[in-house]
Amino acid sequence: MTILSNLIGGIGLGSIYAIIALGYTMVYGIAKMLNFAHGDVIMVGGYLCFITASSLGWHPVPAVLLAITGCTLLGITVERLAYKPLRSAPSLAVLITAIGVSYFLQNAALLLWGSDTKIFPNFFIIGGERGVSLFDGQLNIAYVSMITVAACLVIMLALTAFTGRTKMGKAMRAVSEDKGAAQLMGIDVNFTISMTFAIGSGLAAVAGVLMCSTYPTLIPTTGSMPGIKAFTAAVFGGIGSIPGALLGGLLLGVIEIFARAYISTELSDAIVFGVLIVVLLVRPTGLLGKQLREKV
User: Which of 51, 161, 204, 282 registers the highest number of CB atoms within 10 A of its CB?
Assistant: First the structure.
């Protein structure tokens, strides 16, 4: 029962990483840039949901919708102000800008909402119960874990269908392949990249609400480490691949939970990153990544 409980906890945590990693993988796959401020958008989504819910008597639906809307607009704004002027700049300039945006969001949250730890409510309580109890109470599964896994699967399937069947999704794939050729074919590259940031930031808000409901503390640096781990999950599964982000997130969550339970709580993060190094040494493109050959 202990092993099964840890496995379920790992899948729940991995699903949060996977949702965040989907945002990373979409932005990288289409805009070919690493948005390291993505983790801080998660934090902003958590704060927006918390402030709205506390103002409306802890009603979750409008709070979650406002968090998604606010983060979507934030993603578009950041892309337009910080990243669009650097479209043709070296990748190092974009990377430094992303780190600067990350620190800006953290300090803005510190000024707006203070440094005090906020206790985030669990919105997923049904009939006064936080979860279901199986095998005479030997195994407890929280509702938030079940909803997180279900949300992760739905989001992955929706994104796969969106990129494969819709006009905007096909435009994103075209921009990912060749921005110049896509522009010659009449695709608005700037608008397409902005929509990619909007989708990724909206997913970050969902991940923020689910993560804060699972681990109910909220501070201005809440999204930093989960953002780094989600980026690790995206690389683990093959950055640029939607199924790879899901697989990498789930594996990373399971490895982290089992490392905490059976090896060391202090060393769990080191073990996670160590596994990533081993995987990349064996398969540099990640588990589901594809080796691209550049034609001369």
Answer: 204
